[in-house]
Amino acid sequence: MSDDLPEEVLIEVLLRLPTKSIIQWYSLLTSSNFISIHLNNNQDDYLLVRHNSGEPEKEIYALFCDNENFDEYVEFDFPFECGRLNIVGSCNGLLCFSDDYRIGGFRDLFYLWNPSIRKSFQLPQPIFTLETRGPRGFDHTHGFGFDRVTNDYKVVRIVPTNEVPPHVELHKLSTGVWQDITHVSPHLEFLVRIPGVYVNGACHWVASGRQNMIVLFDVHEEKFSDIMAPDSLVNKSLGSFGGGCLILLLGFKFTLFGGCLHGGDGIIDIWLMKEYGEAESWMKQFRIKLSHITYPVDVVDVFFSPLSFLERPIASRKNGEILWRADEGLLVSYDPATEKIKESWHS
Predict the structure, then answer these.
(1) φ and ψ of 171, to 5 deg
(2) Can you give the pLDDT at residue 1?
(3) For 222, left (φ over 0), alpha (ψ -120 to 50), or beta?
(4) d(CA 224, CA 215)
(5) Residue 111 near residue 123, CB atoms below 8 Å
(6) Which pLDDT tens digit goes with each residue over 85-125?
(7) Residue 65 burial (CB < 10 Å; 0-12/13-18/19+)?
(8) Do the beta carbons of residue 299 and residue 332 sit within 8 Å?
(9) Bridge partners (DSSP) listed for residue 64
């Protein structure tokens, strides 16, 4: 029957189906036009969770419903057999990974994976690598985003040098090659191995020059710009941003975590940018005092010191809670209103 219907009619039909039901429509799912439209119209709330299991170690990826029970929706077959990969980013259902560290050696490999249609492939080797740049070619940060104007996916890689500015290279899916764009590099210091967050057509990082700021890379214009950080954070050390730095997306607004998870006073301030791009709109949403958090009995039984139990926040949930990555492969949900860890799951 599908051969008798035009593609635009099939798209209208399939847009009304849940993701799980449309996986069987393989040929149409390979259309980037359909994937983009379906994801933009799909109102389902899911979180993609990665965890490791078994011996030898195997990576497992699953979608969980962002509901009260955090139910698992579907598990994907991970296509790579190269150890633990670092997630660079995701957009429109496409995930980007870097295989830039392995026990016993270094690698400079990147992969793209679409779990819905079970397709993946490896990107070519970057320009600035361990071989071409020495150890500084290994210490890098990166970002992954989508150019809505040209319908193209791009990976940006920032490689520090002995002096600023760092080297910058860009891979476009449409060309299949890396391009040296160091001429647009900002004179700033980036935290290595902290991937950027893609939102509003740009990848974002926390970086430092004379003071801390949010640095943007416009995926279409292929240029850098910046947004000022909250006043109380502009002169903090980069290490004060929660064991690195973390920017989360919350309804197309920024959430910035600033504080110290381990040691110090154990305080995390959470800032919300109410109007994107407007530095004056930073608002301290709330403060987390780790010593005030109430933990479930099963968590207290496992961990001697709950203060060192939380590693870093990784996502905001639609009910206002924050999903944290924790020790021993746990995910926990923190309610800032009650200062309680409400639930825990093994990741």
Answers:
(1) -110, 130
(2) 46
(3) left
(4) 7
(5) yes
(6) 888 988 888 899 988 655 445 567 899 998 878 888 899 99
(7) middle
(8) yes
(9) 47, 72
Q: What pLDDT is stored for residue 206 in this prediction?
A: 84
pLDDT, one tens digit per residue, over 128-169 is: 877 776 555 567 889 999 999 998 999 999 988 877 789 999
CB 249 within 8 A of CB 212: no
Contact criterion met (CB below 8 Å) for 197 and 247: yes
What does the CA dihedral 81, 82, 86, 89 come to, rounded to 10 degrees? -50
Q: Other C-beta atoms within 10 Å of 184: how many?
A: 14
Burial 144-173 (b: 16+ CB within 10 A, else e): bbbbeeeebbbbbbbbbeeeebbbbbbbbb
pLDDT at 157: 94
Phi, psi of 35 (to 5 degrees): -60, -45
Return d(Cα 318, Cα 299) in angstroms, integer. 24
DSSP-derived pairing of the beta strands 94-99 and 246-249: unpaired
In angstroms, the CA 176 to CA 101 distance is 23
Averaged pLDDT score across all residues of the chain: 75
| Among candidate residues 87, 81, 73, the one with its CA nearest the CA of residue 23 | 73
DSSP state of 40: H
Whether the Cβ atoms of residue 301 and residue 309 lie closer than 8 Å to each other: no
Enumerate residue ranges in the chain where pLDDT < 70. 1-5, 7, 14, 18-44, 52-57, 82-83, 100-107, 133-138, 236-266, 294-310, 327-329, 343-347
The DSSP code for 264 is: T
CA distance 283 to 106: 41
With residue 130 as reference, give the H or E element that holds it: helix 130-133
End-to-end CA distance of the chain: 42
CA quadruple 313, 198, 168, 33: dihedral sign: positive
